[in-house]
Amino acid sequence: MSTTNSPAALTADERDQLDALYSDFKSAHLAPLWTQREGLMPTVPNPDAVPMLWRWSSLHALAERAGGLVPVGRGGERRAIALANPGLPGTAYATPTLWAAIQYLGPGEEAPSHRHSQSAFRFVLEGEGVWTNVTGDAVAMRRGDLLLTPAMHDHEHHNTTDRPMAWIDGLDIPLVRQIDAGFFEFGPETLSTRETPARSRNERLWAHAGLTPVGAAAADTSPLMAYRWESTDSALSAQLELEDEGYPGVVEPGHAVVRYTNPATASDALSTIRTEMHRLRSGCTTTPTRTAGSSVWQVFEGDGEVQLGEHRHELQTGDLFVVPSWTQLSLSTDSGLDAFRFSDDPVFERLGLSRTDTEVTR
Amino acid sequence: MSTTNSPAALTADERDQLDALYSDFKSAHLAPLWTQREGLMPTVPNPDAVPMLWRWSSLHALAERAGGLVPVGRGGERRAIALANPGLPGTAYATPTLWAAIQYLGPGEEAPSHRHSQSAFRFVLEGEGVWTNVTGDAVAMRRGDLLLTPAMHDHEHHNTTDRPMAWIDGLDIPLVRQIDAGFFEFGPETLSTRETPARSRNERLWAHAGLTPVGAAAADTSPLMAYRWESTDSALSAQLELEDEGYPGVVEPGHAVVRYTNPATASDALSTIRTEMHRLRSGCTTTPTRTAGSSVWQVFEGDGEVQLGEHRHELQTGDLFVVPSWTQLSLSTDSGLDAFRFSDDPVFERLGLSRTDTEVTR
Amino acid sequence: MSTTNSPAALTADERDQLDALYSDFKSAHLAPLWTQREGLMPTVPNPDAVPMLWRWSSLHALAERAGGLVPVGRGGERRAIALANPGLPGTAYATPTLWAAIQYLGPGEEAPSHRHSQSAFRFVLEGEGVWTNVTGDAVAMRRGDLLLTPAMHDHEHHNTTDRPMAWIDGLDIPLVRQIDAGFFEFGPETLSTRETPARSRNERLWAHAGLTPVGAAAADTSPLMAYRWESTDSALSAQLELEDEGYPGVVEPGHAVVRYTNPATASDALSTIRTEMHRLRSGCTTTPTRTAGSSVWQVFEGDGEVQLGEHRHELQTGDLFVVPSWTQLSLSTDSGLDAFRFSDDPVFERLGLSRTDTEVTR
Amino acid sequence: MSTTNSPAALTADERDQLDALYSDFKSAHLAPLWTQREGLMPTVPNPDAVPMLWRWSSLHALAERAGGLVPVGRGGERRAIALANPGLPGTAYATPTLWAAIQYLGPGEEAPSHRHSQSAFRFVLEGEGVWTNVTGDAVAMRRGDLLLTPAMHDHEHHNTTDRPMAWIDGLDIPLVRQIDAGFFEFGPETLSTRETPARSRNERLWAHAGLTPVGAAAADTSPLMAYRWESTDSALSAQLELEDEGYPGVVEPGHAVVRYTNPATASDALSTIRTEMHRLRSGCTTTPTRTAGSSVWQVFEGDGEVQLGEHRHELQTGDLFVVPSWTQLSLSTDSGLDAFRFSDDPVFERLGLSRTDTEVTR
């Protein structure tokens, strides 16, 4: 599609008039559509963000170095190191909507209390011993757990052990920054609680499948702050066992998925971020799929390969990769693979912008 | 409110004309509002159904006698004996919307497969060894469990043991009959499965708090057919423990409640029937409350007393009682009480007819 | 389906025991399912209500006689004469859920203020000059208009002319009475207003298609109390004209339908009653259809025929007929027909009980 | 807020290590949170977009010059000149979510057919004679009308007169571009219709307040493509008249507002853009308000002043101004003012990010 509202053959005088017009547009803070329509409104999503993979070993080593050099404190708030998509230079964004970081907390360290309109979660690849206090309710962090801090919930972290711990943080910082929706408040300087219960109060009230506590206050955001690995693991195993027995449950052959949901509404656990755990049986290759919207994945256990648009990467435990919008994705594994995924799907669904294209060949 | 559209002083002639008019109304299949407005539109609900209590011991003895005399089979379908509210003579209704019965299945007996537009559940006071097959998925029935058979789901029961088992059935038969919404189909003559797993397939897919199986087919009705006592008990205990620790969770002091909900929507487990388990701490008396809508309760464990309108009853394990609309209710217990409740609240809520009045004095 | 849990061959002794058992059931206020399963749970809806037609001329004549003999006043509240379905003896119900009546108000008469949890509407076949004051807002009643008085809205009527006026009232009295959801309050003894504006305040705020008044208080029930004939007529004409031009809009060939909806939610105008106006082009016969749920129709203009289950009736302006649940219905007209319909569809939809069967032959 | 995870006093060696760490972060495509937390997560929205006003007279003059020099055609698609917020350099965005432009179509010109996932509307300040064909349905454009082209609806414009016409276009281009949700398809090269009806088919079906066409196909997006000025004007007048009479309706004294809504759902006319018309009575000053989210206004008629954060501008017919997120806004007028507003409020509401602060003093 070449000639766009542009005049085919101009006289010198017309060309001068046109130059003057464009110059006057600029002075008047105006911009013509016809010279940039393709960039503004591409045929299919044409993301600036690029597909990209980060190795956990490198990430963790850098986080460890930061642990020795950079204190955690008020202002910076967290020792978190974010994936900075090279296609989005000058930002610290994994994708246009998602922020993803490794957070590292040394022995006995505390990350101070704050709250914000951004939705956040933590997902734990390894380690334990840190508690996240969410509105004063101490939530243990352990391998395989997903922990939420929904919008405007005070939260703080503290390491109760003599060993460091690292995990990933996911937030909607880019989306909220882009549309100017961010509110942030510092909390008290001292921990709201030093309790270290195995099970938080919100779990005791809400982590009972199909049982709603009638006396619990209603809220717009999820009342459940922790989704434990034992439960996730068991739910994924069940799907694959049912498949073995000939019953439905998996999303496609060899591919089990659970979505973390708000037990008070059955919708996504966070209003702007979808969170899921995927399990691929050994020998499984997922159907190549393109989706409007972006996602970040972390290998939780096992190894395999990912085909990410034109690129192919080997995957090992802890590796993180980014899937920009409308980039074709397929995972495969010889020996079995568990992978955590988070995405901006709820944004696309709530705004009527979802689209998926599943095809065998790209 | 005495004089209603009725003429204060009529001449004999006018009286004759009026008599003729009323007679002509009748012949024309018409009825004046003004002579029956108060009955049709009372100031507050004026139910025909009366408050009533049935003793489990009597019920069970009668069911046992039926077990020896009446076979279970096609046509009658179930050996179920329903609470027949004396205020609704000629019916087998507990309330105008709810049907409640004890069902009894002898050693090795089978209740044949059928499905219907009525929503149904079973709640198990005692015993075990019966499996309900719901659309071919074998669901164990054990003490304290709530088992669903949502509208138009094939179901059948069979006793795999050499001992009889009894439980309660709850359905919306009166409502569905009243508004002429009933459809019923007989199923195959032989059991769909003789499997006796401890955990049904639907539980394996869905009984994971906050974890939605992405590959499971969407449905309007609950995909989870069993709510196990261990989970219910633990959820209720947690509420009372949180109260002890000074945190929210109970609906009022000493009174814990969980509602059984559809994990795919977070709304009531059945679209026309609310199901809940209540736990009263020893020494607790619940606030006297009147609610538009009716309910049936069964004491699951413990003893206490119920104030039901003007009536007061002692309560023992297994006793069933009926609360007609707008009848004041208060429970109390010295030693602690667990009670199962089902009601037509979802009907009232979905139709915009809910009303509750909580007051200390009647 | 003959033999139902009943013992095939009983000894005399067993028969005695069975008799004793049934007798004991009765004493204990219990009823076995197996002897009445078919009645309680029919294969398809088996309504007690029967198809029935009332002639407007007869109705109106009786209402007129009542006008001369029975005053309107507090207690009786309204000079309304209800369709009493012969299949529901002892009631004044048109169907198990719907109440339908002709209301008659003489020159200068007033029907006193009250409010109730029942939802109500009026539909005007002919005449004018009465205003219904809804929460103090005077709503003119004119030919072809639908006027609402949603649940718990104070309302009163007064005839400002020297001629009587009659119209039909529709309410959910049977449903609300049956489930014991009724609350009723008398209002003040004097009219809230004697204003007679052509257009009520609620219309001035809300009767603008696609334009929501941002400053209007939110409410659960419809804020719009009047749907004017000019608008309804124009909407129906448009559908048929579009059909003539080859475009979609009608529900089937020659059959236009508009549903009266709540402009604040786009759902049914009343939460328990669906209201619609149907227009059949001359020569049209509607597809025979059975629906779970009941309805009442009034011919607004034109003539034709209705096939109502086994019965066939000629139709003239003003005639009312009742369609019990699952009764096959088809309308036809040589010269064109407008008909108002109201039904309990919202109840069925909200409770998950809807079912429709459209077939050419019954 | 001073010390943020930064080391208070570093030795030279530590400083070297830190420099090396930051350099290694960069090489690894990582970015620390602690050095940029304030920028990423400000206390309140800190938009890059700035408050700004464009004069209609200047805009129109430039559009007219473009009309003489730049043809309309395939590729560029439209002769639209967008407001380019100086705070968002290098873009053609009015705000981070909204695109606003003047579109100019000369005598007899045609803008070719296309469709896209972006939602769009046109609002007409002056003129007439252009028809927008939306999926083949010809929609007249006249002064004061709002015309929709919801996502993925084919549309094209053509000027049937010998005079040029100009109007404003509003789209969610920035949001859709930012989150990579854009799909775009060219349509046929020739007009789908040359009909010029006064009323489009969608209006004939849907523009009847409270009347839903039962036979119309259900859709996720608004079925009504045109909101006519006569109706908007009348709705606004009614609110002010009701205020005069002492009744509710206005949002605050002297300030009437209608929101354009989807008649099939009662929610915003477009899923990502709110559209409203405001009318200020003479002498009115609106309460200074800050809202999370951005908006664009155009004065439709009258004059007045706007206080936009620190800036104050006189307003005349046609002027456009931009309100970035959390910028305080107040309008005032001596002689009365009508103003059209569009905003990203639906995005904020659907994602749980809404916040408003109304206060007398900034």
Give the tags:
362 residues, alpha+beta, six-stranded antiparallel β-sheet, globular, 24 strands, 7 helices, homotetramer
How are the SSEs ordered, and which strands pair?
The structure is a homotetramer of 362-residue chains.
Chain A: H1 12-27, E1 30-32, H2 37-40, E2 52-54, H3 56-69, E3 80-83, E4 99-105, E5 110-116, E6 120-123, E7 128-134, E8 137-142, E9 146-149, E10 155-159, E11 165-171, H4 173-178, E12 184-186, H5 201-206, E13 211-213, E14 226-227, H6 229-245, E15 255-260, E16 274-280, E17 289-291, E18 295-302, E19 304-308, E20 311-315, E21 320-323, E22 329-332, E23 337-343, H7 345-350, E24 356-358
Antiparallel strand pairs in A: 2-21, 3-4, 4-11, 5-10, 5-12, 6-9, 6-11, 7-8, 7-10, 9-14, 15-16, 16-23, 17-24, 18-21, 18-23, 19-20, 19-22
